[in-house]
Design a protein that fits this description.
The complex is a heterodimer of chains A (112) and B (111). Chain A has 112 residues and is mainly β. Chain A is built from no helices and eleven strands. In chain A, strands 2, 4, 5, 6, 9, 10 and 11 form a seven-stranded mixed beta sheet that branches. The chains are: A mainly beta (112), B mainly beta (111).
């Protein structure tokens, strides 16, 4: 049981580039979410999904896109990277949003 | 944007001391309150999920209480050990069905 996996672990982008952060879980969880973590600000919700084919915006969705074509995978796309998107990104999954969230190891993204 | 506040922001205690910190959240439209422990260079791990007013949860030396009517939860650590050093996060789940995290309390236990 791998739990929640994220790739890559580190990434450096130039302003304007696009990329996809990958997230996968093998626990058959319906609920998946993406957070960003910035110093002094805790974890902020970017997008979430309550099941395959269903996604919704969180607190800070601008500049990010998501899709959920399978239960296992929930990729996060940066459309045109900006320095303000420099952050650590965590993917999480849970059976539903009442239950404890299981977090991936994080992706540290730097946008120059 | 919901206001979830944690205090203090950071805390240093001596090994063997007991300590506690606070999470404040909106007292309306409450669904659940989560506590997570986050060690440096790792990912957050769940400690408790609390749903009922008056709930008390315990895991080893760590316990938590919940007051949904006044909008606060306390996390207690009895006899702190250096391995308890971590950031402790609370997260509020309201009617919007999205978890809103506080910014955490950073605990350092000095040997």
């Amino acid at each position: 049981n791998a739990g929640v996996t994220q790739t890559p672990k580190f990434q450096v982008l130039k302003t304007g580039q696009s990329m996809t952060l990958q997230c996968a879980q093998d626990m058959n969880h319906e609920y998946m979410s993406w957070y960003r973590q910035d110093p002094g600000m805790g974890l902020r919700l970017i997008h979430y999904s309550v099941g395959a084919g269903i996604t919704d915006q969180g607190e800070v969705p601008n500049g990010y896109n998501v899709s959920r074509s399978t239960t296992e995978d929930f990729p996060l796309r940066l459309l045109s990277a900006a320095p303000s998107q420099t952050s650590v990104y965590f993917c999480a999954s849970s059976a539903d949003n009442y239950n404890e969230q299981f977090f991936g190891p994080g992706t540290r993204l730097t946008v120059l | 944007i919901l206001n979830v506040e944690q205090s203090p922001q950071s805390l240093h205690v001596q090994e063997g001391d007991s300590t506690n910190f606070t999470c404040s959240f909106p007292s309306s439209n409450f669904y659940a309150l989560h506590w997570y422990r986050w060690e440096t260079a790792k990912s957050p791990e769940a400690l408790f999920v609390m749903t009922l007013n008056g709930d008390e949860k315990k895991k080893g030396r760590i316990s938590a209480t919940l007051n949904t009517k006044e909008g606060y939860s306390y996390l207690y650590i009895k006899g702190s050990q250096p391995e308890d050093s971590a950031t402790y996060l609370c997260a509020f789940l309201g009617s919007a069905r999205q978890l809103t995290f506080g910014s955490g309390t950073q605990l350092t236990v000095l040997p």
